[in-house]
Each structure stands twice: as C-alpha cells, then as structure tokens.
Amino acid sequence: MIESEYDDRESRKVERLITTAKFRYRAFIEEITASSSRNIDKNTIGRLSSCDFISQKQNILITGSTGVGKSFIATAIGYKACTMGYKVMYFSINKLFSRLKMAKADGSYLKEIDRIEKQDLIILDDFVLQSLDNLKRQDFMEIIEDRHGKRSTIIASQLPVSAWHEVIAEQTIADAILDRMVHNSLRIDLKAESMRRKKADQKIS
Fold it and tell me: In whole angstroms, what is the distance from residue 150 CA to residue 192 CA?
C-alpha cells in the first residue's frame, strides 16, 4: 500500500512537470529512429536517454533542414528529463521573445527571467531564421548568460551552427553567446529526407 502510494505520488509529480513544461506534443526517446543516413546512432540516443548532460551542465544543439525531426528529438529529451524529475520548459523562440516583450510591458520581466534561469533544462525550438533586433539579442544573451555553466539548454534550428553568428547579428554579443552555447555542447546535425514527408508517403501507400 505504501509502495502504491509512492508510485502514485511520483506519477503525479511527473505529469505536473510535463504539464508545466508546455510541450507542443508528446514524444518519446524510444520512438527516435537511429540510422547512419539520419546522422544519429544508438549510442547518441543512449546518451540522450540517460540525461547525463543535464547533471554535467551541457547544452545540446540540434540542426537540420525542415521536417527531419529536430523538434521531435528535442521534445523527447525534455519528456525523458521530466520523468527523471528535472524541471523543464519548452519554448518556440519567437513566442518566447513575444512573451518577454509583454513581461517588460507589465513589469514581470525579471520574474520571468528568474523562472527561466531556475529550470534544469530549457528547450528553444525553431531558432530564428532572421537577424535578431537589439531587444531580442539582449534578451537571448541574458538567458544564455544566466544559464551558462549552471543549467542545460537545447536549441533546435534549421540553420547550421556556422550561420548563427550572422543571425545574432552583433559581433561582440554573437561571440559571447556562441562561446557559451557551443563550448561543451553535444551537437546533432540531422540529415536525410523530411520525416513528415516520409510519414505522409507511408499513409498514402
């Protein structure tokens, strides 16, 4: 009976962490397809599944063209982290910038930044395809600076890491952000055809 109550309490805790994370959809690491053609192997998936990168304060950078599974992998890692008791928050990067802009307007900006800083893992999805303006650049720098060496961040982007400097747009800040993000990070550069298109073709056939 005590064991059952403990399991129930742990289950509720995990569900609460998943709800708070605000993922766009459910995704599980066991569903990630490992293959050389996708440039992701079983060893890498095993490392992600352990979530050791969180205790080691590492970042994960996931890049690749549209539909290859970047968001799915990032979300699956986030789900796994929740099941292990870690606090996670998922953001579409443009929606995050909009949220921070509104927080500045209503006076809750510092509270919002503090909440983001305290998460064991944040996921920044759909990293921008256009140059950041000064306000977004400063917000992004503050988030990365606050978490550097203390917490883990996952960034998923269509752009290769080599193009991020240009998107951030201001050399000094770009250098500072990339130094903090890229150093000590696990990088996954996904290849192959769109997984969305592949699933659509399978349904048709």
Answer: 34
